[in-house]
């Protein structure tokens, strides 16, 4: 698989990563199988998807434990990204950016992941009660201690401003500029997909100009862009899409033209090349085409999806393909 670099430290990863969260958290608990998830992790590594993206809050903790079982066997092949800064309660999630907590959280993640070093340690959310410089300084000390190789900031979940038209990631950029004065930012993780392209306006150019890697979260639109979801089919109560305003039956039906467009492009490429191409691969190839510093991190908990996603790394969209994607209708449905 093509390799891409993350940050000034030039950390190399496969062009397509693997989001591990769906294996343990947020998506249909009844369909989570640890044995299948382990096979999925191995398949991803076999195909060159070296970046494994997890977090201590996924589960909580169980996702890191799962990834750790694979790292114990195949650590040299993997690039491990995990996150700290969020605590999960019974009915709530709170941020904790206190330096002492960050250091304890890192040690705990290292134990669960069964590794001596975390390749990319990300701040999941800034704590409004703690200056972000203090949190980042504690994370920088982890690099100095040899427990972490590089630092990143996660901007997933930023929703404010979508209705007002304000730039979605202005606040994130302000945070980045503050922490950059303390220790270099190697990567930013934020949502980017055909139906959520907001990062192209401001955040992605900021990263490119500074040599910062960009991890594209939810590049398949929480599964919508795969074309495998049926409007009105519904989701389990614990599935985040059950409360997601773009996954009501009405909005899923209204946004089908986006999937139809991706399917049309995939079919044409398949006819031209003789290869089987899927809408999901076209969606991932579009993300890859946004810059050499961009690495999509699609979530998957099944082997077949991990293998299909990996195949997108070899797909190059033509100018015609990209122009056709640009003409697809904007996604309908508020995020608020």
Chain-wise SSE layout:
Elements: E1 3-6, E2 11-14, E3 18-19, H1 34-46, E4 51-53, H2 62-74, E5 79-84, E6 86-88, E7 93-95, H3 99-113, E8 118-123, H4 132-144, E9 148-154, H5 170-179, E10 187-191, H6 203-209, E11 213-217, H7 249-254, H8 256-273, H9 279-288, E12 294-297, H10 303-311, H11 319-326
Parallel strand pairs: 3-4, 4-5, 5-8, 8-9, 9-10, 10-11, 11-12
Antiparallel strand pairs: 1-2, 6-7
Helix pairs in contact: 1-2, 1-10, 2-3, 3-4, 8-9
> Radius of gyration, rounded?
19 Å
Strand content: 15-25%
Cα-to-Cα separation, first versus last residue: 38 Å
The H-and-E topology, N to C, reads as EEEHEHEEEHEHEHEHEHHHEHH
What structural class is derived from the secondary structure elements? alpha/beta
Mean pLDDT figure: 93
Question: What's the β-strand tally?
Answer: 12
Outline type: globular
**Main sheet, how many strands, which sense, barrel?**
8 strands, parallel
Helix coverage percent: 25-40%
Strand order, largest beta sheet = 3-4-5-8-9-10-11-12
Total helical segments: 11
As residue ranges, the low-confidence spans are 160-166
């Amino acid at each position: 698989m093509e390799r891409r670099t993350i940050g000034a430290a030039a950390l190399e990863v496969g062009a397509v990563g693997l989001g591990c969260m769906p294996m343990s958290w947020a998506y249909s608990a009844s369909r989570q199988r640890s044995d299948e998830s382990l096979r999925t992790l191995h398949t991803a590594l076999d195909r060159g998807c070296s970046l494994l993206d997890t977090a201590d809050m996924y589960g909580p903790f169980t996702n890191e434990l799962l990834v750790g079982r694979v790292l114990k066997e195949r650590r040299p092949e993997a690039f491990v990204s995990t996150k700290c800064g969020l605590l999960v309660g019974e009915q709530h999630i709170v941020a904790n950016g206190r330096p002492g907590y960050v250091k304890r959280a890192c040690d705990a993640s290292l134990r669960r992941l069964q590794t001596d070093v975390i390749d990319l340690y990300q701040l999941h959310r800034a704590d409004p009660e703690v200056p972000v410089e203090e949190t980042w300084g504690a994370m920088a000390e982890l690099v100095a201690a040899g427990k972490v190789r590089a630092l990143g900031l996660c901007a997933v979940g930023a929703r404010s401003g979508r209705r007002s038209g304000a730039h979605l990631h202005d606040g994130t950029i302000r945070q980045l500029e503050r922490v950059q004065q303390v220790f270099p930012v190697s990567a930013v993780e934020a949502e980017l997909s055909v139906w959520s392209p907001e990062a192209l306006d401001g955040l992605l150019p900021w990263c490119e100009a500074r040599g910062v890697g960009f991890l594209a979260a939810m590049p398949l639109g929480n599964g919508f862009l795969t074309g495998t979801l049926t409007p009105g089919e519904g989701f389990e109560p614990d599935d985040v899409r059950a409360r997601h305003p773009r996954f009501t039956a009405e909005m899923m039906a209204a946004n089908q033209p986006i999937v139809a467009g991706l399917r049309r492009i995939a079919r044409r490429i398949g006819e031209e090349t003789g290869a089987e191409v899927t809408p999901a691969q076209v969606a991932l190839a579009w993300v890859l085409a946004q810059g050499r510093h961009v690495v999509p991190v699609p979530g998957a908990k099944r082997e077949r999806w991990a293998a299909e996603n990996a195949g997108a790394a070899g797909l190059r969209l033509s100018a015609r393909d990209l122009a056709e994607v640009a003409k697809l209708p904007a996604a309908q449905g508020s995020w608020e």
